[in-house]
Write a structure and sequence with these properties.
The protein is of the alpha/beta class. It has 2 domains: about 220 residues, Rossmann fold, CATH 3.40.50; about 170 residues, Rossmann fold (3-Layer(aba) Sandwich), CATH 3.40.50.2000. Helices cover about 45% and strands about 15% of the residues. It has 17 helices and 13 strands. The strands form 2 sheets. The chain has a 7-stranded parallel sheet with strand order 3-2-1-4-5-6-7, with helices on both faces. A 6-stranded parallel sheet has the order 10-9-8-11-12-13, sandwiched between helices. Helix 13 links the parallel strand 11 and strand 12. It is globular and about 65 Å long.
């Protein structure tokens, strides 16, 4: 099975590498993903006993920020090795985890690469954030008797369908995981349905509710657009949503000229094309962000927030961050990847979810005109956060028995 997997993964890599080069998604040190390590890094890795923690991208790195602090207090004699897959996630991890963990690119899941990573790190425990299933890496860890766990686990609707199609291949891999700390009962039932041992699956909640935001330098964010300082932040936007946001904003400022708009695209390479849209519409007081790691600071200064990937592309993005600041939040209908989080906020009346672009415009218009409604939504959002905290502590407790 693993030989077949290597062949399939190799074919995928051959197709993906040209795309990687053309879209500039590679990054400094990318060669380490294939097991090519600089000497200095080898010395740093081997300096202490290691706990290996893996995250894919920005969202998972945000979870690690708070988790690693608690993990290190629990295991003060170990250093944390954090591996990250995507370019934006890796860059953010290098900045946010500095002094907390040694950051490396994650291994490409070939059998020989997995073997080289495990041989170098010699982890006493391996922890994956959310549901990252890497058959070759898991097998190598299992053969070396390394306990490993999944924290903040979830299985989206799309992923569940894909995993079901290869369930017969996954069961043995899933049974190698020592403990599954899942976000919800539905996520737990799904991973059990795919073959995980029920005795190893625990519902611990969503750690993102614990991941309180930290302002790095609020003074560096230019949000003042008027004497009233009213700012609408459209965060994590995807293609199609920027046009809708700009068109709605162009109508709103006719009645409410004191509002300013800041757009933060999910992929910063799209910033130039969004600026062109702003110019074509002749809009002023619109700022487009082209750097990573600014969104939390911007949410802190916002009077109104739209969280993207929910109107057009689908799947949703994290709404917990602006909720920590007590902001009025609007999202679209396509939030399948955050279904349980959205359900919590809807139940607690801490969010406005719209059906389409037309209802989006109406909701934004109403909130721009009603400060009392914005304040009430923000208070309710904070209440939802407070009611759902504690997942990080519960996850640490689940891991306590794994590392002797």
């Amino acid at each position: 099975m693993f030989l077949i997997y290597d062949v399939i993964f190799l074919l995928y890599a051959v197709i993906y590498l040209p795309y990687l080069l053309l879209t500039s998604r590679g990054y400094r040190g990318y060669g380490m993903r294939f097991g090519i390590f600089p000497l200095k890094l080898k010395e740093q890795v081997r300096a202490k006993a290691n706990i290996w923690v893996h995250a894919v991208s920005v969202g998972e790195v945000m979870v690690l920020d708070g988790f690693i602090g608690q993990l290190s207090r629990y295991y003060p004699d170990h250093q944390v090795i954090a591996t990250v897959t995507t370019k934006t996630g890796y860059e953010l991890a290098c900045e946010s985890l500095k002094g907390k963990a040694l950051v490396m690119p994650s291994p490409v899941d070939f059998s020989f690469t997995a073997r080289r990573f495990v041989s170098l790190i010699e982890p006493k425990m391996y922890i994956a954030v959310e549901t990252e299933i890497w058959p070759n890496l898991f097998r190598e860890l299992y053969l070396r008797h390394v306990p490993f766990a999944v924290i903040n686990g979830r299985i989206s609707d799309v992923s569940f369908g894909r995993y079901q199609a290869i369930r017969f291949l996954l069961k043995g891999v899933l049974n190698q995981v020592s403990v599954w700390c899942m976000q919800s009962r539905k996520d737990a039932d799904r991973v059990i349905g795919l073959g995980a041992l029920p005795s190893r699956v625990i519902v611990t909640g969503n750690m993102k509710f614990d991941n309180g935001p930290k302002l790095s330098d609020p003074s560096s964010i230019d949000t003042a657009g008027s004497k009233d300082g009213l700012c609408w932040v459209a965060g994590s936007t995807h293609p199609g949503e920027d046009e809708i946001v700009l068109d709605v904003y162009s109508k709103i400022i006719k009645d409410h000229p004191q509002w300013r708009l800041i757009i933060v695209p999910r992929h910063v390479e799209r910033a130039a094309s969004i600026r062109q849209m702003v110019l074509e519409r002749g809009l002023k007081n619109v700022k487009v962000i082209d750097t990573v790691g600014q969104l939390r600071n911007l949410y802190a200064h916002a009077s109104l927030v739209f969280v993207g990937k929910s109107l057009c592309v689908g799947g949703g993005q994290n709404i917990i961050e602006p909720a920590f600041y007590g902001k009025a939040i609007v999202i679209g209908p396509k939030t399948a990847n955050f279904r349980d989080i959205v359900a919590c906020f809807k139940q607690g009346h801490g969010i406005v979810q719209v059906e389409d672009a037309h209802s989006f415009e109406q909701a934004v218009r109403d909130l721009c005109a009603d400060a009392g409604r914005r304040e009430a939504l923000g208070i309710a959002a904070r209440g939802v956060i407070a009611a759902n905290q504690g997942a990080t502590r519960r996850s640490i407790e689940c891991l306590a028995g794994l590392l002797k």
